[in-house]
Write a structure and sequence with these properties.
- This protein is mainly alpha-helical.
- Among the domains are: 80 residues, Serine Threonine Protein Phosphatase 5, Tetratricopeptide repeat; 85 residues, Tetratricopeptide repeat domain (Serine Threonine Protein Phosphatase 5, Tetratricopeptide repeat, Alpha Horseshoe), CATH 1.25.40.10.
- Helix content is 68%, strand content 0%.
- It is built from 16 helices and no strands.
- The two termini are 34 Å apart.
Amino acid sequence: MKKVVVLLVCAVVLLVGDKSGTQLPSEVELYKKVCDVGNMLGCYNLGVMYTNGEGVEKDFSKAAELFKKACDGGNMHGCYNLGLIYANGNGVEKDFSKAVELFKKACDGGNMLGCSNLGFMYANGNGVEKNKQKAVELSKKACDGGEVRGCYNLGVMYEKGNGVETNKQKAVELYKKACNGGDILACTNLGSMYANGNGVEKDFGRAVQLFKKVCDGGEMNGCYNLGVMYEKGNGVETNKQKAVELYKKACNGGDILGCHNLGSMYAKGEGIEKDLGKAAQLFKKACDGGDMDGCRNLDIIHMLMAK
């Protein structure tokens, strides 16, 4: 099963209330007024609206200005979001060192997303010397502080033995905590642990439940993995048509392995009418996305079509 390891958390969240389209302009005006008189939460929220283009035209440069004002005024959410802007180069020149500085300030100020992302920077050596032990320490702090992405990140480290001794059981425990807290990537990895019997007794039925949750939550890797379960009959009755449906969804959503497996179904005529031309298109898409099996299968299909 493919697992996705993504450590940087990109979460820009408005901290006040729900919004409807008719309220947005007045909210912008309100946040501007309170920001102008020194309310840092107002500056932060106005920055979020510029980041997301809600009630105003999207403007990362303006958002950066507002997050800086909020951060300088002691709002740790502003420091965290300004760190994201520098990490991603949105509206400013990309600057990992500046992002590290801001994530550290946010983390030291109690913002657990800041701790999680600072751990990411240490894990990957972005803007700071790579330090896997420091990454573990920060991910644990984030996890213990209630940030589920920190738990997910820490789970990856225990599964892979990065900065800590490999411990599959501990990884499962952390993925469970993160998944139960709503982290979809943790649910993906937990499903893979159950499917492969890593750190937990193999349980295809539980893996199917988790991959369905992930797929329904919009993570295409979950749709791909669920398609594999239906194709192989693991934890569910074999259903090639359902597998094709799931591979299509995954592929259309940008999952390259979904494209590869869908190409295989077309090539073999399983769950769908055989179509070597369509298979070739899908293998090419997978190959262009970096899947070497897709490249090899594309060559084979070209040879078959040339006969």
